[in-house]
């Protein structure tokens, strides 16, 4: 297979298992975001792919060849570190030229390639500047250009945008995605920011406790989360417990009864899918407990027989509910996902 | 935090204590020495106040010039060897486990408790013909017969490096421990072998620390006067030995003071030159 394949990759530090038997196929040219809370093993997995950590078990296969025993400096990957790790004693141009210099590429060719990369990251003419005189966003781009200088077989980024402020981060996400599409390089980004993952990725890999919880395109992850962990981690969701007999909020729910196992489960529905209607008109009746009007959207918190349900809508769609109002609640079946456990 | 500029006399009060210490323990003795260096030697007594340049004139001879040159060369060599040995050592130490680091640091600190005299005589025994390390080489069959390695330049250099090494390690240690470990990893992902990454990323990134350490060891070694006497021949004696000789055995305090002033000026000049060269490279980078 052309692309990267992880086969049962495991990493233990003493008694602690950081990565627990991860298997994944990443086709050539895919943009993958590894997403998860801190300590879920995503950075360790990335470092193993880069060769900076040795797996305790399993194999990492690239384009059909096992790269597990190959040392980092012979893998020809590009990596961007969270700290960026720009060399403080070299100027911008020399930083970008470093991988070329190491490989003994002719000076003139080095210069040509550096100019090309500087143009690509919109920093033309910055080659002679010291790294310390750059802004955060500029450093970020230099780190990216340095990692791409050799046209790497894999492009790895560890929380690359976490040091930037919110606005710049969003702009860089778009820029990074466009750059990746232009170059067609297989890219793996580790992040804990789900917006970042949704913006950039072809495939989102949600990790928890060292395992892959779900690997799928972003919209599918959002619409069809595999379990409660994924549903809760990606965006906000209502997790409503289902009764053992297939009842929902104390009422029989015929459409759901079939899919629920004997030990019950949870129903996940996104707040924007919850419909609030006039009292008596919906499937359920509840009381509004709190309204958060954010201008662009309104979040309405409803108590349905003791279970909290959150609904989000734009002001145009949903005018005026006040705390204390009785309200009808409809949960459209096609938007609901039944989760085990 | 924004600092207000000091206004009243009270705002300067915290400076009083360090200022007094500096005056009492540095300015006064140093000024006395400079003053004495212009005095005249009194053969019958000690010295008498005067203003004469004779002491400096006497210093400007080939003999004292050679001794000064040798002292500086020796101090430079000690500094360079110390950093060459201590840097890789400290780097490897920083990668060891916490417990190993503590054991090594305690061992290194304990070397500091040895006096210069003990170090000198320990090395003179180790370098002797009858009980020295050459006997081990003979036993191992690497050497025909045991011989004395002292007195000699090698013996002086070894003992001085031994004495200065703990300081070198202790000065390098904090900077090396706090370095950004991802620099090395970044260099490796970019295609540099571990050794290459160490040489062209880790070392240059710590250049300021290395320069500061070189200066510290240089100044430290410049004042050494016991080890060259114990382990060296007269041609290995440093200016400090001659200063002691003049001040204590020849009772020529003005001439000793003049030599000391000269030594201070030369070392200041060298330190300044080093900083200047380091600073210029910084500006280019």
From TrEMBL, chain A:
PROSITE patterns: ABC_TRANSPORTER_1, ABC_TRANSPORTER_2
Location in or out of the cell: Cell inner membrane
Keywords: ATP-binding, Nucleotide-binding, Transport
A Pfam family recorded for this sequence: TOBE_2
Domain ABC transporter: start-end pairs: 4-234
GO cellular component: ATP-binding cassette (ABC) transporter complex
Membrane topology (UniProt): Peripheral membrane protein
Xref: InterPro entries: AAA+_ATPase, ABC_SmlMolc_Importer, ABC_transporter-like_ATP-bd, ABC_transporter-like_CS, Mo/tungstate-bd_C_term_dom, NA-bd_OB-fold, P-loop_NTPase, Transp-assoc_OB_typ2
Keyword Protein biosynthesis part of the UniProt annotation: no
One MF term in the entry's GO annotations: ABC-type transporter activity
Family stated for the protein in its record: Belongs to the ABC transporter superfamily.
Name the record gives this protein: ABC transporter ATP-binding protein
Species per Swiss-Prot/TrEMBL record: Neoaquamicrobium microcysteis
UniProtKB/TrEMBL annotation, chain B:
Protein name: ABC transporter permease
GO biological process: transmembrane transport
Family: Belongs to the binding-protein-dependent transport system permease family. CysTW subfamily.
Record organism: Neoaquamicrobium microcysteis
Short name of one Pfam family: BPD_transp_1
ABC transmembrane type-1 domain ranges (all copies): 68-274
Gene3D superfamilies: MetI-like
Gene Ontology cellular component list: plasma membrane
Topology of the protein relative to the lipid bilayer: Multi-pass membrane protein
Alphabetized PANTHER family for the sequence: INNER MEMBRANE ABC TRANSPORTER PERMEASE PROTEIN YDCU-RELATED (PTHR42929:SF1), INNER MEMBRANE ABC TRANSPORTER PERMEASE PROTEIN YDCU-RELATED-RELATED (PTHR42929)
Entry keywords, A to Z: Cell membrane, Membrane, Transmembrane, Transmembrane helix, Transport
Regions crossing the membrane: 12-39, 59-90, 102-123, 152-176, 197-227, 255-277
Location in the cell: Cell membrane
């Amino acid at each position: 297979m052309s692309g990267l394949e992880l086969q049962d990759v495991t990493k233990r530090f003493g008694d602690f298992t950081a990565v627990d038997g991860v298997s994944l196929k990443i086709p050539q040219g895919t943009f993958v975001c590894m997403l998860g809370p801190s300590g879920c093993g995503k950075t360790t997995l990335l470092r193993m792919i880069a060769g900076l950590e040795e797996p305790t078990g399993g194999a990492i296969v690239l384009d059909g060849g096992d790269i597990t025993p190959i040392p980092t400096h012979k893998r020809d990957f590009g990596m961007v570190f969270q700290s960026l790790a720009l060399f403080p004693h070299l100027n911008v141009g020399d930083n970008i030229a470093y991988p070329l210099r190491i490989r003994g590429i002719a000076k003139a060719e080095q210069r040509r390639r550096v100019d090309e990369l500087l143009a690509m990251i919109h920093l033309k003419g910055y080659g002679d500047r010291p790294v310390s005189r750059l802004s955060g966003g500029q450093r970020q781009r230099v780190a990216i250009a340095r990692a791409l200088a050799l046209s790497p077989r894999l492009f790895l980024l560890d929380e690359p945008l976490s040091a930037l402020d919110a606005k710049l981060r969003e702009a860089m996400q778009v820029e990074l995605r466009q750059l990746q599409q232009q170059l067609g390089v297989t890219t793996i980004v580790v992040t804990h920011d789900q917006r970042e993952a949704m913006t950039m990725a072809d495939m989102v890999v949600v990790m928890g406790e060292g395992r892959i919880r779900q690997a799928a395109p972003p919209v599918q992850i959002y619409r069809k989360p595999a379990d409660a962990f994924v549903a809760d981690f990606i965006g906000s969701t209502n997790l409503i417990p289902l009764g053992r007999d297939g009842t929902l909020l104390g009422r029989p729910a015929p459409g759901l009864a079939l899919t629920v196992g004997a030990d019950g489960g949870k129903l996940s529905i996104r707040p924007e899918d919850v419909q609030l209607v006039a009292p008596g008109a919906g499937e359920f009746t509840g009381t509004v407990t709190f309204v958060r009007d954010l201008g662009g959207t309104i979040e309405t918190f409803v108590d349905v027989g003791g279970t909290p349900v959150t609904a989000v809508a734009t002001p145009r769609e949903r005018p005026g509910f006040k705390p204390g109002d009785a309200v009808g609640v409809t949960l459209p079946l096609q938007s609901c996902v039944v989760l085990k456990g | 935090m924004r600092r207000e500029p000091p206004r009243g006399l009270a705002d300067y009060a915290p400076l009083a204590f360090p200022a007094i210490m500096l005056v009492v323990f540095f300015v006064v003795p140093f000024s006395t020495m400079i003053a004495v260096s212009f005095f005249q030697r009194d053969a019958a007594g000690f010295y008498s106040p005067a203003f004469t340049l004779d002491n400096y004139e006497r210093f400007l001879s080939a003999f004292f010039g050679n001794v000064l040159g040798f002292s500086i060369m020796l101090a430079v060599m000690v500094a360079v060897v110390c950093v060459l040995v201590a840097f890789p050592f400290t780097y490897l130490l920083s990668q060891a486990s916490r417990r190993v680091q503590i054991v090594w640091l305690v061992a290194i600190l304990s070397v500091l408790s040895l006096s210069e005299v003990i170090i000198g005589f320990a090395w003179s025994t180790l370098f002797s013909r009858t009980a020295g390390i050459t006997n081990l080489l003979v036993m191992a069959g690497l050497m025909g017969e045991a011989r004395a390695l002292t007195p000699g330049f090698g013996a002086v250099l070894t003992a001085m490096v031994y004495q200065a090494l703990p300081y070198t390690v202790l000065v390098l240690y904090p900077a090396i421990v706090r370095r950004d470990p991802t620099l090395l990893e970044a260099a490796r992902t970019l295609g540099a072998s571990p050794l290459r990454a160490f040489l062209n990323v880790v070392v240059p990134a710590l250049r300021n620390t290395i320069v500061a350490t070189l200066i510290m060891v240089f100044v430290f070694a410049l004042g050494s006067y016991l080890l060259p006497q114990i382990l060296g021949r007269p041609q290995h004696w440093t200016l400090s030995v001659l200063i002691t000789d003049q001040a204590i055995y020849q009772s020529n305090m003005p001439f000793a003071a003049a030599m000391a002033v000269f030594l201070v000026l030369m070392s200041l000049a060298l330190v300044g030159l080093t900083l200047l060269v380091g600073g210029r490279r910084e500006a280019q980078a």
